[in-house]
């Protein structure tokens, strides 16, 4: 029988690798080589048989369809004994694989970080045809190609015996040479151990190989330790952060203790009970000769002792509390003395209820400058929004007027009315208009529908904006001013309200009746 291997150098597994020439051999030697190639494989006692998997015939054209196995072609009405008797070795050993874990050292040149690297591999030995395959698990940023290390094939032993590697050659804690690579085996799976125990050659216990520099330094992930104190410091420095106690914030939100203190001039000290922060304000008065500056100390937690520590090294228990502020006693704030002269009524009641201390009232109040304005507001010229125009009167750089957001969201409703001109002009008395009132911003829009052959252009008659009702003290129009049957004057035009739609009737019935 002819050999399946091509007669080319490097493709015949039984040839001598170190042979310098490839001359023809005699026919007797070729017959011996053929017999070696076609000898039946050795059968072994396996721990357990593979379950028979007969794939269903439905879905054969599906790309994920299970591949065909020997179980599909088993004869029917045949006992297991006769079945095993006539099965070839490659059927009995089908899907029985021995799995080993090993490693080999590889030199690393021109690197200041490492001299060698331990490359871990997985060897799968197939009892079906005594072939093996080697794969290398992929490592992140390893710098070497990993994955399929050796494709499935028969491998000759390294002892020049011209025989293939057999299961007896694999032993834990011993070396095996595969194509010049000396591989040390250090582990195998449970099925492989059971297989060798049945053969009478149990494997040794597994061990963990010594890690190399790349695995210890590069692959070891650094787990940073969270510095909660530094994080809280940075958040508060940026104006954020959260209160340590949520209960404290909910119970004391918008509760502020007010003290009157004196250093070189009078100051006001605010203590916020919600987060235990303190701020100091200057008392500015007219013609005081001082530059009006809003804050002496911005809002922050005040440490008991001032020291130049690293950020985040001042802990919560070192901050000043309300019980540390006493009448007549100096309060040291960043090496500056502030004398407590009094407090307001709320602070006095808080100290009496909390600490049973009668804190006296007193102190200089903030100077409130009287608003003196000689600004004469001119009448609106009718161009644009009146609130928008007033911004140029009160400020040199006007700001846009603020709109009522909640009113805008909650009142997305329009009221529509049918109206006609209240006039005696023959060309205008038959004109019909639709007046729309927008509840979200109290604006009006007057629209004239299309009338064929009227000679009057249709479309928008009055722009959508807020209009004043001259019959109601020049107040802006409200839904109460728009009632069916009444006469309204909008921007100098007199309209008679004739009718409204069904939704407007229901809305008026629910809100004004």
Tags for this model:
six-stranded antiparallel β-sheet; EFHC1/EFHC2/EFHB; cytoplasm; cell projection; alpha-tubulin binding; alpha+beta; DM10 domain-containing protein; elongated; 18% helix; 11 helices; 513 residues
In short:
The protein is α+β, with helices and mostly antiparallel strands.
Describe this structure in words.
- The protein is an alpha+beta fold.
- It has eleven helices and 20 strands.
- The chain has helices at 27-37, 80-86, 89-92, 190-199, 213-218, 228-237, 246-252, 345-355, 386-394, 405-410, 502-511; strands at 97-107, 116-126, 131-136, 147-153, 175-178, 181-188, 256-262, 266-272, 277-282, 295-300, 330-332, 337-343, 414-421, 432-438, 443-448, 459-465, 468-469, 475-476, 487-490, 493-500.
- The strands form four sheets. It has a six-stranded antiparallel beta sheet with strand order 4-3-2-1-6-5, with helices on one face.
- Strand 7 (256-262) and strand 8 (266-272) form a beta hairpin.
- The protein is elongated, with a radius of gyration of 48 Å.
- It starts with 26 loop residues before the first helix and ends with a helix.
- The mean pLDDT is 82.
């Amino acid at each position: 029988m002819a050999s399946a291997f091509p007669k080319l150098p490097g493709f015949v597994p039984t040839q001598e690798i170190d042979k310098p020439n490839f001359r023809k051999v005699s026919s007797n030697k070729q017959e011996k080589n053929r017999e070696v190639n076609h000898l039946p494989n050795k059968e072994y006692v396996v721990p357990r048989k593979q379950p028979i998997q007969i794939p269903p015939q439905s879905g054969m054209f599906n790309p994920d369809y299970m591949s065909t196995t020997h179980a599909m072609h088993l004869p029917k009405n045949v006992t297991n004994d006769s079945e095993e008797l006539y099965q070839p070795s490659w059927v009995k050993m089908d899907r029985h694989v021995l799995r080993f874990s090993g490693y080999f050292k590889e030199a690393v040149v021109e690197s200041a970080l490492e001299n060698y690297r331990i490359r871990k591999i997985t060897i799968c030995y197939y009892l079906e045809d005594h072939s093996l395959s080697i794969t290398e698990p992929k490592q992140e940023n390893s710098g070497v190609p990993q994955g399929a290390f050796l494709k499935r094939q028969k491998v000759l032993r390294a002892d020049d015996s011209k025989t293939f590697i057999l299961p007896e050659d694999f032993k834990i804690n011993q070396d095996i040479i595969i194509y010049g690579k000396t591989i040390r085996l250090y582990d195998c799976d449970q099925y492989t151990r059971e297989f060798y125990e049945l053969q009478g050659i149990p494997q040794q216990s597994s061990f963990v190989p010594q890690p190399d520099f790349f695995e210890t330094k590069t692959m070891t992930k650094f787990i940073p330790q969270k510095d909660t104190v530094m994080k809280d410091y940075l958040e508060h420095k940026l104006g954020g952060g959260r209160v340590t106690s949520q209960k404290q914030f909910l119970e004391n939100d918008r509760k502020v203790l007010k003290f009157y203190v004196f250093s070189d001039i009078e100051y006001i000290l605010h203590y916020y009970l919600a987060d235990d922060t303190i701020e100091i304000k200057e008392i500015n008065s007219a013609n005081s000769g001082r530059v009006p500056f809003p804050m002496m100390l911005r809002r922050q937690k005040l440490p008991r002792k001032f020291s130049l520590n690293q950020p985040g090294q001042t802990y919560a228990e070192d901050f000043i509390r309300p019980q540390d502020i006493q009448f007549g006693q100096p309060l040291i704030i960043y090496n500056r003395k502030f004398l407590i002269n009094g407090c307001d009524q709320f602070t006095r009641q808080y100290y009496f209820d909390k600490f049973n201390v009668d804190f006296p009232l007193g102190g200089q109040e903030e100077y409130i400058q009287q608003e003196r304005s000689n600004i004469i507001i001119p009448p609106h010229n009718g161009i644009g929004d009146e609130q928008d125009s007033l911004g140029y009167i009160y400020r040199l750089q006007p700001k846009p007027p603020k709109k009522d957001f909640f009113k805008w969201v909650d009142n997305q409703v329009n009221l529509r009315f049918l109206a006609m001109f209240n006039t005696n002009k023959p060309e205008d008395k038959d004109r019909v208009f639709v007046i729309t009132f927008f509840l979200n911003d109290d604006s009006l829009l007057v629209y004239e529908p299309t009338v064929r052959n009227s000679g009057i252009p249709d479309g928008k008659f009055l722009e959508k904006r807020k209009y004043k009702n001259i019959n109601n003290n020049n107040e802006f129009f409200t839904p109460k001013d728009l009632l069916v049957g009444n006469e309204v004057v909008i921007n100098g035009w007199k309209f008679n309200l004739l009718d409204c739609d069904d939704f407007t009737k229901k809305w008026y019935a629910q809100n004004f009746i």
